[in-house]
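Forum > Structural Biology > Help requests

Title: Can anyone predict the 3D structure of Type II secretion system protein H?

Hi all, first post here. I have the sequence for Type II secretion system protein H but no way to get a structure on my laptop. I'd be grateful if someone could post the structure tokens.
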Amino acid sequence: MDFTPPAASVHLYPTGIKLMQRHDGFSLIELMTVLVIIGVIATVGIPAFQDTIQSGRITQATNNMLGFLQLARSEAVTRRAPITVCASSDQANCTANTTWAQGAVMLQGATLIKAMSAAGTNVTINGAGNTLTYRSDGTLANAEAISICDTRGAESSRQISITVIGQARSGANTTCP
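Reply #1:
Sure, ran it for you. Structure tokens for Type II secretion system protein H below:
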């Protein structure tokens, strides 16, 4: 069977009828659907992302404070001298009426050993006082607790517990001042 193309004079389509032209791109309905999906994802995702950022700030503040206290204990034992850790707003001296969230310093007598910068945004760090002194054997006179909180309250907060033998540990906190 032979197939021969139609003659040039034969029209496949009646004259006067225009063929639908093909358009590249997206229709308005497709674009609106994508925008609605993006809106739903943003509505659900942004609050969860903000919660993750706040949790990261609490974790960072806890780790910074915990490391600072562990270093102070180590310095007291290494130097065989009392080491004072206190809240400081200028990261140079102990400052009265200052919270731990504003920063802290580690001192041997009047000599600055190390400074810790202020905690992140919306993070509060509170303890029984604003000064701890490690004895030369790494112990404290009294056990202490430091609460690290943010605007979300106790369910997301942390607590650093320091025993009389000077060990500092972090754990869940039950209250935020």
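The domain at 28-172 is CATH 3.55.40.10 (minor pseudopilin epsh fold). DSSP finds one helix and eight strands in the chain.
Shout if anything looks off.
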